Amino acid sequence: MAQNKFRGLGIALITPFRAEGSIDLAALDRLVEYQIKGGADFLCIMGTTAETPTLSRDEKRLLKEHLVERVAGRVPLLMGCGGNNTTAVIEELRTEDWTGIDGVLSVCPYYNKPSQEGLYQHFAAIAKASPVPVVLYNVPGRTGVNMTAETTLRLARDFENVVAIKEASGNITQMDDIIKNKPQGFDVISGDDGITFPLITLGAVGVISVIGNALPAEFSRMVRLALRGEYNTSLSIHHKFTELFKLLFVDGNPAGVKAMLSEMGMIENVLRLPLVSTRLTTMEKISQIVKELGY
């Protein structure tokens, strides 16, 4: 079985843009160093939080090459590679250069709402084509279809290079079912900051985090304490974040965390359409929290 390198705090890395809309590589470099210094265990690049649907093919290649060079093997890199056209995903897996990438995060096909058998066959084809380990990504709130525990476990048992699932269904019972019945070497990763603590207590191995972009040191401490079984201290940190969890997502992702990073002086508060910045009322609340945290 391929080893899962994606444990602990993973950062769903944002893509910083300049005011005129181009990618801000200098800000990206600052963010990467901030994440690694703050204790991030791995980086998840070109996922939803990176506004990947708005990036051109050339921009994606630029980002991948730049991040591989910048990270230089200090932490594992998990890169988004998914879609609702199985043939296109397989073509990308077979033709792109995956040097320096430790695994791919592949989202459930969206919009066309396949059956469970369709989901299984889609990911089976991806597993057979992928030159690197595969992390499944179940996020029915965005894709319109939920991958059941049964389908996830079937994939985990049938393909050794399917090493984990990022679970963002919000269904704790489903996640617990996967954790309880999974084969050895397959892991569950939280896809939702707000349920990371309870999910780790059930046996999850970490999180792919949005809030970690802004607060990697604090969030990585919570994750590490929970993984060590020091639940009381970890829970107190979790409770400190409760209001912020809601605030960062009320106007959509990554609008909230970009507003926060902007308030911290890390990036310009720029998103690409169809996404827009947070409302002024949300921004004021985020600004107040940033001041209270001492940034």
3D structure, described in words:
This protein is an alpha/beta fold and 295 residues long. The protein has a single domain, classed as TIM Barrel, CATH 3.20.20. It is 46% helix and 13% strand. The protein has an eight-stranded parallel sheet. The chain is globular, with a radius of gyration of 18 Å.
Outline of this structure?
By secondary structure, the chain is α/β, with parallel strands linked by helices. The protein has helices at about 25-35, 55-70, 85-95, 115-130, 140-145, 150-160, 170-180, 195-200, 215-225, 230-240, 240-250, 255-265, 280-295, and strands at about 10, 40-45, 75-80, 105, 135-140, 160-165, 185-190, 205-210.
Furnish the topology, listing elements before pairings.
Layout: E1 8-12, H1 25-37, E2 42-45, H2 57-71, E3 77-80, H3 86-95, E4 103-107, H4 116-129, E5 134-138, H5 140-143, H6 149-158, E6 162-167, H7 172-181, E7 187-190, H8 196-202, E8 206-209, H9 216-227, H10 231-240, H11 242-249, H12 255-263, H13 280-293
Parallel strand pairs: 1-2, 1-8, 2-3, 3-4, 4-5, 5-6, 6-7
Helix pairs in contact: 1-2, 3-4, 4-6, 6-7, 8-9, 9-10, 12-13
